[in-house]
């Protein structure tokens, strides 16, 4: 039986996607080496209710270079991170000589905005990539102590789409305890399990996301490390996220938003077996309906291509068994993915220009969390008679 990485209690499996490749392992067409696979299964802790993967991908297998996340590639995300930085500047970074730390560089939108306001800033980024001040290491107790000694205490430690990736998350909280000023805050935003259940956005579950947070599980995790959950904020980005704020126990009281979200999770029975089993059944239905739709369109002679070689698409393609016979290519704007094959299913990845040369009859939108932005950008596709296929929250054509 698996044990919880937060509290060591038993973890109960509720969904198994089978053997999956790494979501970032795009292969060259001539590559013959056997692909690494692991069992992508998710369970819930019977004590602290933390939802988590049952099998961790070894750190040495995970990519830190080659497929970086570029938030500025999306107007929505660029604006989101700029607003986040401005909020920190007005609410938390107001003392004399404040110090801002980010775990994970993304592509520097938050750090650049903070720096341009004259605030000291530093990013922990193991890949070493980044134009700003970068500490080339993982964030843990040793690296936190090194920075604390050199720079002094941090007023804010911030992470976006990063903490859910860290299986040994206790080391992050221990590092935060070392680096934060007495009244400092640890702020992180990650996919919200409540939204995953609500939308049946099962493709949010893949190798790089080890945890799927709720307010209840984050509060339990925080308390084990001497912190309290003091604020939560719903975010519309990436299919629904929550921004969590942690402070040392007793330094700040929880906001009304924390109380309200905890009550909502309880009333929804968010982590109850009935809810989880219903989610699993709906995911299986989506798989069946999506494959049947693609097969029917193929039989009828329609051309379907994928849009967005996202990490999420790896879960969908491999779980559903969708290969080049149903989706002959995927278009993506990331140069490092172009000319390669999707993990496991080996669908060729083409640059965006291929989308309109010629337009397909249907486009399977893997980047559904950017649907509004993508569809506005690709209006000519609709005008040419093209239709979008989506599978969140269910299989439908628009």
From TrEMBL:
Q: Cite the EC number.
A: 2.1.1.-
Print the keywords alphabetically.
Answer: Methyltransferase, Transferase
SUPFAM superfamilies assigned: S-adenosyl-L-methionine-dependent methyltransferases
Gene Ontology MF terms: methyltransferase activity
GO terms classed as biological process: methylation
Which intervals hold domain C-methyltransferase?
236-393
Q: Where is the Methyltransferase putative zinc binding domain?
A: 4-59
Entry keyword annotation includes Ribonucleoprotein = no
Q: What is this protein called?
A: Class I SAM-dependent methyltransferase
The source organism is Streptomyces yanii
